Structures are given as structure tokens and as C-alpha cells.
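dumping the sequnces here before i forget
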Amino acid sequence: MSGALVLIQSCTVDMIRIKCPYCGERDHSEFTYGGDASIKYPALDAPESEWTKAIFFRENIRGMQKETWHHTNGCRLWLEVERSTITHEIKSVKACHPQIEKITKSKS
Amino acid sequence: MTSVRKEKYGKINRGKVLGFTWDNKEYFGYEGDSLASALLANNINIVGRSFKYHRPRGVMSCGVEESGALVTIGSGSKIDPNVRATTQELYSGLNAKGQNAFPSVNFDFGGVNNYLGRFFAAGFYYKTFMGLPPFEWGKGTGIWMVFEKIIRKAAGMGKASREPDPDSYEHANDFCDVLVVGSGPAGIAAAQEVANKNLDVILIEQDSLLGGNSLSKKEFDATLLHNELKSSGVRVMSRTTAFGVYDNTVVGALERVTDHLPNPDVKLPRQRFWTIRAKHIILASGALERHVAFNNNDVPGAMTVNASRQYLNRYGVLTGNNIVISTNNDSVYQTAVELHEAGSKVTILDSRENINHDLPKEINLHLNTLPFNINGRKKIDGIDVCKTKDLSKKNTIICDQVLISGGWSPIVNLISHRGIKPVWNQENLCFTPGDIKENISVVGSAKGIWNERDCVESGLIGANEAMNTLGIHKKEISFPSAGGWSNPIEPLFEVKSNKFPSKSFVDFQHDVTAEDVRLAHREGFISVEHLKRYTTLGMANDQGKMGNIIGLSLMAEQLDKTIPEVGTTVFRPPYTPVPIGALTGRNVGKHFRPLRVTPMHQWNIDHGAKMIEVGLYQRPWYYPKKNETLSDSYIRETTIVRKTVGICDVTSLGKIAIQGPDATEFVNRIYTNLFAKLPIGKARYGIMLRDDGIVMDDGTSWRLGENEYFMTTSTAAAAKVMSWLEELLQTRWTDLKVNVTSVSEQWAGAAIAGPKSRDVLNECVLDPSEITKENLPFMGILQTKLKDDTPCRIVRISFSGELAYEMYIESDYAHGMMDILWQSAQKYDGCLYGLEALGALRVEKGHVTAAELDGRVTIDDAGLGKMASTKKSYIGSAMRKRGVLIADDREMLVGFFPINEKETFNAGTIVCEKNNIQGSGIGRITSVTHSPELGHWIGIGFVKGGLEKWKEITLVGADPVRNKQMEIKVVSPHMIDPEGKRMYA
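..and the predicted 3d for all of it:
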């Protein structure tokens, strides 16, 4: 993490709150935004055209969007978050890894 | 205006006299005074000079919307400009000065600007770009440059200190069930109701006293209220402003901890920046009284009506002797009666035709009457009034104060922060909050409810809404409707003057007049957002609290539209100014950013290292002997490493433990080169690509066991690579049974490089013949023990190009490892070397680092194409062959020599063809050093087409930043020992 990033994070009011299935509800500054969670990445040996589609062609969603967040300064789980790009409302949060998701779900 | 302190009025503590200075003269006030009330009590009426025209200004309000009494407090490094005297509590020894004036606010040379008003109309600044008419002389930046300097001097507000801020600030966090903003009748009702249900409630109030507008009532006890709230369990935060409302019901608040204290405890922060996370927010932020635009409506003595009531009942200051009140609504009548009772002569001008109010007969009421022009410059001599139907016929009323009420504007700022557009309420001529879908309630006059009983009622309903959110109960929510005056308000935004240039101020702080708004319209700025920026209306530090609605109404009139059609500008945080210091909090000086030190940090310093910050790490830069400069030192260190041996702290490299039955498969997928057949006990240098085929990072992975690897990454990419591996395992390859753990902090590392490194190592380990060419070949690893019996890991690996090793040990034993290594190295005339020498050694070998792998470079560009396996698929393998990444004119890694061996060059130099020195050239130099072995400067970098294309051709290194140019030639990046004889020795 660069120094500048640390500074920016510490100066602004934390806005979004994300309910990490392992740690509980935390400020978004503990997390790092990943990307589009709806992408199905092709197999490693898939042709370039499929990879191009997965990497460069993105929906620009106005509304609920599935995205990944990394709980970088927490449990380090990668989370799948359903967030409204209009209101920042968060509809659901779950661990990306199905096995971990099962464990966290049974815990709560 | 003659303002005087009245006996028996006010909630000030007359038992405690406070001395303060205003413009270097001493005055007295009482405990409980604001600076503004104390100035008024001393009959000081001119307290500021306006922004552009330097017009004298007095106290115009009683709160955060103040536009006249902006003063500078303190001196030296503690100077605080643009303080609203109306919200500054008086303390003993307070030192305040008028600002934007020379020599003083009372007599200001800048006042001449008032007569040059035509030049300073809206957009004047922008128009200077167009040059002087009629020939547009100086068009462009010419004239503008001249005016820019003059404007900068003449316009503006107080001056900030150039010295570092001596105060400290804090960040603080809190949580609660319900957060109530504002302690007027609605806020109090809400807070108490919720607290009675045993919920955790925080009440925020910007003032020092609770009560909101109740403070302007004659009979009101703020202390009693405070105690009541506390006993019902409400956590009260006074002197705290909720300046912004954010997602997920988070509120940003600024607490002024010591701004009201004469000699604050040095351990206390000046202010606290709060982040409060609530489950439900109740906004009871109140409303502000508007003024009316008419000629000279800014003469000292012009004030909002409610402010005058507040000065009388809260501070015991009667602000005028002979008062004219101008209104279009009912809110002023109680004030009129109270001012009359306090001994002033009161005249009311009401713009409406029929109203029904019982008034003492001594109060003159003129219906259908408008204020037209205030007479006087530094003080009010009288007011010209006219009838609504006939503006030409004027009548002068002698007075010393004009109180104005153009209606009330609910403070919708905070709810607007949530992107909720305010809705125009035509009946009450104000914006009220729009439809809210979040867990936020707006109550009281912030909702446009004027009558106190309904305000309390709305507070209780807001509390119910909060309890709905918290699941305490489920109740139907129905708020009382806006309004509550017995006689309806009628529009009165501006009384147009036929005088030109008229000075009917809309925005006092930025000296924006009604004429400026019309000028902006004539010049085509018809959107409110453009109007705002062109005229700067609402852009001063009050952010249009007083003037915005008037500006909108004027624009609506010009456009022949209604106010809701024109719309309003977007309110953004902060509601009132927040000092940069508070935003920064403790993140200043050493705490500006985190500092990382390696476990042998102290050891390095004790051995003479000069340190440098890399990323966040403190790393040894060079180890000077006696008077050596950086240059002397690194050249010596580099030479010794090539000749005998050197030791260097490399702990900052990222280290990741990779474990699990699928570890090999995992490592094989992320690196471009083959790892599947890496034997246990061997390491391999590897390159990782991103999905899009660009190089992400390089490093080594050591196979410690069947299912266990130890990965090192570059210092710069350590955190990124760790997150990346976790992402792959948790989101894409969820079937792989692999665990990754960052062990960067657990292992300390040192490089031992140079022809004598093997001898040095053998002296350090328990078994002195363990390190042989056969036992530890190139890229071999060994888990063994140092001679003091501590376990360590050794890999034979070389960044310097010499016979070299890296040794890792558990961090706690780092000092011991360094002692042992250093003791041994000294016997071979070795040295300690720092980052500068490390850089020189690797540049000589053409080894890349983050300076080269900058996110634009492919594996082929870096000359490492042979490390890309064709026998397997890996991350980036599909994409690295796409067209643009394999084009012929890609910039490829090369080395650079100066043609003249005495020349030097810098990283960042642009490589150009000799006859075409421009633009971004054909390449760039990314890393440079003096090469002791070659005896001149060398560099590595990139050039289009690579070495083959430019071999033997003289190119030019252009360095426009340093105003330098030199002839250079392109060489192989492997400048020393290209066959690697030394490395494999």
C-alpha cells in the first residue's frame, strides 16, 4: 500500500459499511475494491478471444452490481458484494470461496 | 446603529467579566458572550470589509450563516482567519482583528473598489482573458497575468499563517443506535423519546449551549435541558458540527475542543474529527432566516430579525435604538414586541396586504411596504421605503437599524449530501427535503415546520421512525405538514432599484449583487450551476446559506420559469468549514505515513548506514566511511562486491509461504516458466503476468518440500502479489487445496555477494564445509544452522551478477545473523552495501526492477521472453500474444552508454533520434548508475525496436527537465559478464 493511499484513507469519512461474514460490519477503508464479480474467467488454455471478452468487455451497470472486495486489513477474505452503483446500498455480502461461504454461513 | 447591553436580559454570566482585544484595543464582555455579541455590546458596528468592494460590514446574523463578521483570531502560527464572530465564544484574552482591510476595517483604502464596481462585476476575472477593448489588447494571458496579481491582493478574506500549525488534532470514532443532529425543540423531543426506550443516543449540537432557536426565547434554561437529557441517557456532544452525512448512516462531525478556552491544556487536541456510525439518523438541523436583496442592504446595522432577538434574549444586547423591521412573513412579530418592550422604537414594514396581528400601539405597522434603499455608508441613517404597487414613490424613515426577514430556509444541506434533491414548497417559499429511502428522518423546521408544537410532534414521529428501523416496533409514520404561520408568506426576494449600478447584495460574502445575476443571464449562464460558478454566488465559506434562494429566484425571473424549474445547486459536505488540520488529524510529521523498518534496522544504523525510504521501508542507502559522499560510497561498495564480498539487508522483499497438496499446480499456473518439475531443494526465478499479459512482478520460489514453497516478491509488489494469490485461490481456483500466508515480517534476509561469498558463508554456518559448489549449486537451497545454532535458510541466487547467496533467518535473530556475517566478511576485506550499490550492480547486469516493470512492459519487452513457457498455459499466456503486445516497434529493454565517457545522464531521459528531438522520442532511460568496472555512466531503459535496430547508431538523450542533452548509444543490457561466468562460479 502506498503512502499516499494510506493518507487518503485516513483523511476521509468512511462511507460504505460492509458486513464481512467473518469479521462483522466494518468501514470500507478496511477493504480493497476488486472488480466485477460476475465475470467467469475462461480456462487458462482458452483462446485469446475469450480472455479478451472476460478482461476488457464490461457491463457499466446502473443499479445492483456484483463486485469483489478484499478484506485487506481484516480477515483477508475475498467477498462477493452486491452493491447499488446508484445509492451504494449493499444488498448482500458473502465469501467468494464456496467452502468458506458455507462455514461463515453456518457460523451466523 | 447604537447597540447596548441591557440589564436583566440574556443568559450571560455577568459575574464573570472577560477582557478581549479587537483591532488592538481592549474591551470587555461576559462569560457566555459570543465575539459578535461582545462587539455589539461595545457598540462596535463595523467588523469587516467585503470581499470585492471593501464595503464596511457589520454583524448580520447570529450563527453559522454569518456573512459580515468574519474576523481573524490569534496571531503568529496560531492565526485563524475567516472565523465567524457569531459562533466564536468569547474567552479571556481573545485577540481578534478585522480582515481584508488596510489599515483597518473602520478606514480601508480598498474602499475605493466600491466606486469601481462596474469593473468588478460578475465574470470580471474571466473577461480579463479577452484583453482590453476595443482591440482586445493583451488577449490571452497577457492582461490576465497583470490583473491576476492585483485581484489576488485586493480580493479575499483573512490571511492564513505560513508557519506549521502548532495545534494537534484527533480522529475519533463512535457508534450509536440513533444520532440526532440539532437540539432545537424537535431534536430534543426526538432524542428524549428514543433514549426513553433505552437506546444508545448521541445528540450533536454545534452551539456551546443546547436549545437551538429556543435560545432566542426570553425564558429558557439551556443548562437544565442539558441535565435532563444526560439523566435520560442521551450522550450529548455540544460544540460539535455534523458537517456531512454519508452512506450507511455514517456522519462526519467536527468537535471544537479548545477553541473557546483561553489557555487550553496542551494535551488536548484543538479539534476532533468524528466518524459516527449510527443505525438511524434524525436530522433536526433547523432553518435559517433569509434576507432580501435591495439597494445597500449590507450597511452595518442590517441584520436578520431573529438574530436581533437572539442578541437580546441570549446575550442581553439590544442591537438598535430605532429599528425598522422588514418582512414578508409572520416570524418577526414576536421579536418586534420583545424589542419594543426592551425599549427600542420599532417600525414594521410588511410586504403583504392583509395580516392579522395584535401589536402594541407604539409599534408602527406599514402594510404593502417594501424596503428600497438604506441610507448611510458606515452606519444606517435611515431607510427609503415604498409601496409594493409603486416603487417610484419613496418615503424615508429615520432609523439606526434595519432588520430583515425574507422568509426561512430549512437547512436541507445534510440530507442533500445523500443525493436527495430538495423539493420546492411554494406555499412556504422554501426548499424542503425530498423523499428519503434511507434510515434518516428529517424533523422540525429542517422540514419546513414553523410552529413549535408541530416541531416537537415531528421530533416524536422521527423517534418512532428510528424505532421502526431498529425493530423496536412497527408504527405508521405521518409527519405534520410544513408551514404553521397564521398569515401566509408572500414572495419577497428582491426590491429592484432603478439606480445603476445598484448594490443589492444577494451573496454578501462574495459581493454578488442582483445585477451580477442578471449580467450572468445576459451573458448566457442560465443553468444554476453555471450561474454559481460565473458569479461565485454561494461559493464563499457560508456556501450560500443566506443568498442562494434569492439568486435562484432572480434567475427564475430572468428565465421566466419557476424556482423548482430552475432547480438548486447541489449541497456537498462540509456544512461549515472544516480545517485541513482536522482532516489530517495525527497524520503529520513522522506520522504522515507508516514507517516500516527491517529487523536489522538498528544494526544497519549502528554500522553507519545512511537510510532511504523505499515504499514505506527504511532501507540502508549507503555506508559512508569518514567524509565519503553518496557517490564515493556506492562506487566503493560496488567495487568491493565485485572484488571480494559485500553484505546487504534485503528483508524488504515480500515473502509468502505457499502450502498444500496443490501448491505445485498453483505455482505452475501463476508463473510463466515451468515449475512443475522443480525438485525439492531448488529455487527458480519466475515472472508473473497479469491477466492481460503484462508483467506483474518477478521473484523466486523455493521448493522446500513436496507441498511447500517459499516465494519472494519484489519489495514494491509484495502486498499486491499477496492479494493476487488470495484472489486466485478464493475466487477462481476454489478447487485448489493451497494456503498462502504472508511471512514477510517473519523472515529477515541478507544478500551475501561477491567472489568471496562462499568462503564467508562457510565461516558462518555450523559445518564449515557445507557450502560447496556441489552441495549448494546455483539456485540451490539449504536449510541449515548458523554457527550460533540458529536455524536459517540459504539460497544461491544472484542479483549482482557475482557468486552470491541470500540468507534468511527468523526476524528476532536478525542482529545475530548480521553480526556473524559481518564478522566473517571483514576477514575478506568485505563491505556492507546499500541500495545505491545494489542498484549499480543490477544495472550493470541489466536486471530489471519496478523502475522497468512499470505495468506497460511485456515479458518480451523485458528481454525475458525465453522464460515464457510454450509447454503450458498460465495466467496471461493467452493475452500476451495479442497484436499490440507483439508489434515490431515495441519498446525493448536495452543498455545505454554515453558517447562521451565523461557525460552523465539521469533516469527519465528521453531517447531520441539525432535529427528528431521531440515528443516522447523513441524510448526512455529508466535506471542509471556510474559503473566502476566500465569507468563511465551506464543506463538501462527501453527503445522502440530494441538493440538490433539501433546498434551502432548515435542517439540523443534529451532531458528537458534538467535542460540537458547528450549523445548516447544503445548496447546490450547485460553490460558485465554477459555469459554469467561469475554468477555460476
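The CA atoms of residues 848 and 862 of chain B lie 8 Å apart.
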